[in-house]
Each structure stands twice: as structure tokens, then as C-alpha cells.
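Q: What does the assembled structure look like for these inputs?
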Amino acid sequence: MWETRAVELHVQLPRPVAAEVEEVQRNDPEMLSRMLFYAMTRRRIFDRLAAESDVERAEGRSP
Amino acid sequence: MRAASGGGPMPVGDRHLEQAIGSSDSVLPAWSAEDDRTLRAKYLDWCSARLAERFLAMTPEQIYRLAQETPSGARSKPAGAVEASLPDSPVAVNPVSLSESDSFPEIVERITREIETAMGLPDFETWVVAYRASPDQYEEEMLGFWRDRL
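A:
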């Protein structure tokens, strides 16, 4: 659907989690891509719902 | 957010929610403004889980088709019309790349607006009744975004 490209990320994680992420990256890099895609989609949906909720409450359409 | 009140257009498939739908018209116990803020934030987190699950179950072709049928800023179509394009009803279209001008946020917004209409998510009051009956079940589906709203 969308063209893909590589993204270089640097994140700080607790050491045990960092080791786990590195192992996943070595053994199943596609999994990391799916995890990130899922999280970004969730975040975007949450932001949209929150913005919509704020507008509705400001306009008095939501109790 | 738009939400189904009582009998929404689609069964929720959750025992606690189904029980709550019948009881949410009764008087709810009062809760503080602080609790209200937390509950509303958790409700949005939970709704985002349901919508994301449906969004990501769609094939790229279904996403493309629905996005093309739903111009930015357009009003949602009736639930029945949208349902025909959702995962339970696969559609046969040629794989086509989305336009470079279609940003990820725009696509997600357009698609989830349609999914939300089709799914008939419970309204806040109904959800609170179900959440209080089984908070752990609902907490499991949250990613913690709700904390940013407090």
C-alpha cells in the first residue's frame, strides 16, 4: 500500500527490554515493524478520539 | 465521539458490555471530577484499541478503497454501507498505492471515522458500567495513553 523505507531509531529502554528488542531485531525484524505500526496507529486513533471528545465537551454535546 | 447509546448498530460481543447496555439507563453511582477525567481517558484508550484492531485487520486493498470512498472531512456513511467494506466482507480491488499526499494521520482518521460508525462502540456511560464490573478485563486492552490526559 505505502512505499516503505528504513527508519533509524535510538530509544532508551530498561536493559533487559533492550536486550529483548535487539534479539527480536536480529531474529524477526518484521515483527518490530509491525509492533511500531500498531503502536503508531493506536496513538493516532487515540489522539483523534481525544480531540473529538474535547470539541464535543466544549460544545456541550457530551455529558 | 459519536457512540452508540443502548442498542448500537452492531453487537459489542462482550458479556459485560451487553449486560451494561440494558442497565445504563438506570441511575449511575456518582463519581468525582477526578474519577470522571480518568474514566473518560481510559474509555478513549479502550476505544482506540477496538478501532485499531479493526483497522489493522483490513487488507491494504480494503484500506485503500475505504480511504478513496471517504474524502477528507466527509461525513460518515450509514453503518450498513460502511460494513460492506470492512474485513468481514472482503472486496476485490486492484492493489494501488495511495497518493503521496495522503499522510498517515489523514488515512487513519478517515478510515477510523468509518469503522467507528460501523462498529457502534458503546457510549461512555454504558462503558463505565461494564468497566466497573470487570476493570481488569478492560485495563488489559489499554496501552496507557490515557495517562497523558490526566
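The helical segments of chain B are 15-23, 33-57, 60-69, 79-83, 104-119, 124-133, 135-139.
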